[in-house]
Amino acid sequence: MPWYVLYTKSRNEKITAERLNEMGIKAYCPVLKKQKQWSDRKKTVLEPLFKSYVFVNIEEKHMREVFKSPGVVRYLYWLKRPAIVKDHEIQSIKNMLNDFDHNEIKMQDFGLNDTVIFESGPFINVEGKVLSSSGKKYEVFLPGLQMKIFVDTTQNKLKTIAH
């Protein structure tokens, strides 16, 4: 059976996965252990690795059953079909979470005016400045080439650099 990606209500990832598992639907919400500092104490909390996403392992004919859980909004689509994640990709996420210090795992989002450098693609090692963003797509100005380009970070690797 394939893994599908569910989009959940904000901050409902863990409870949605728990409810789906209670319903007999195999659900996985990868979490990171994070140290949080409050004014009076430190506490270790579990935060979802992917905000608003839960993976479900379900047969296609039973896909509608997930909507019985109140935290589910919709399936994530790719090319007009529900997005599928392969078993080995789910296992890679689990291995990463087991093998690495959670404080070293960071999800990268780029802010306006961040200076970035390309780590892959035709502009490798070229620096640019983030002008705007929409999801995983960014408008980047490349001063050395005096041009604006649009970058999809699912296809190209970018890294923030400090100046």
UniProtKB/TrEMBL annotation:
This is Antitermination protein NusG. One of its GO terms (biological process) is transcription antitermination. PANTHER family: KOW MOTIF FAMILY PROTEIN, EXPRESSED (PTHR30265:SF4), RHO-INTERACTING TRANSCRIPTION TERMINATION FACTOR NUSG (PTHR30265). SUPFAM superfamilies: N-utilization substance G protein NusG, N-terminal domain. Residues 2-93 form the NusG-like N-terminal domain. Keywords: Transcription, Transcription antitermination, Transcription regulation. InterPro entries: NGN-like_dom, NGN_dom_sf, NusG-like. It comes from the Bacteria.
